[in-house]
Amino acid sequence: QSVVRVVFHDRRLQYSEQQQLEGWRWSRPGDRILDIDIPLSVGILEPQIHPTLLNTVEFLWDPLRRTSIFVQVHCISTEFTLRKNGGEKGVPFRIQIDTFGAGGKGDPPEHLHSASCLVKVFKPKGADRKQKTDREKVEKQPAPEREKFQPAYESTVLAEVG
C-alpha cells in the first residue's frame, strides 16, 4: 500500500499546515488538493480518496507488476502566499509517497520506503515564464555551479527520503 501526500516543503508552513489546509478548504468548498488520474495510471489497485484528507490519496499495488501513478495537484503555489497582487514567488510543495507492507494480524503495517520531490505549481502561462527565467538563471551560472542543479526530466523523479 502506498500513500501519496502533497505537503508544504517550508518548515514554517509545516507548523501551520492544518490551518493552511482548512483555509484552503473554506475558500474552495468541494475541491480537493490531490487526486489520482486513474485513466493514466497503471497497475494501481483499490485507489482510495478520503473525503476529509484533501491532500492525500492511497492505493494498493503489486510490486511484481509494472506500476505508475499519475496525480493531479489542484492548487497553485501562490494560493498560500501572503500577497495576492501578482508576481508572488509561490510556496514549494513536496509530493511524498510512503509505502507500507501488509502487517500481521493485529500488527500495524510495516513501513518499507519513503520518497519525495519538490514541486511548485503554477498556471500554464505563469509556469512557462517561470521555467524560462529559471533556465536563464542556471545558464548564467559558471559550470561548477550548474552541476549542482538537477537535470530536467519529462516525468517527476522522486528521491529517497533519508
Task: Give structural notes.
The structure is a single chain. This protein is of the alpha+beta class and 162 residues long. It has one domain. It is built from four helices and eight strands. Strands 3-4-1-6-7-8 form a six-stranded antiparallel sheet. Strands 2-5 form a two-stranded antiparallel sheet. The mean pLDDT is 81.
Q: What is Rg? A: 18 Å
N-to-C terminal Cα separation, in Å?
Answer: 20 Å
SSE run? EHHEEEEEEHHE
Number of helices: 4
In helices, the fraction of residues equals 10-25%
Global outline: globular
- Uncertain residue ranges: none
Average pLDDT, to the nearest integer? 81
Main β sheet profile: 6 strands, antiparallel
Number of domains: 1
Strand order of the largest sheet: 3-4-1-6-7-8
Taken as a percent bin, the fraction of beta residues is 25-35%
Strand runs, count: 8
Class by SSE composition: alpha+beta
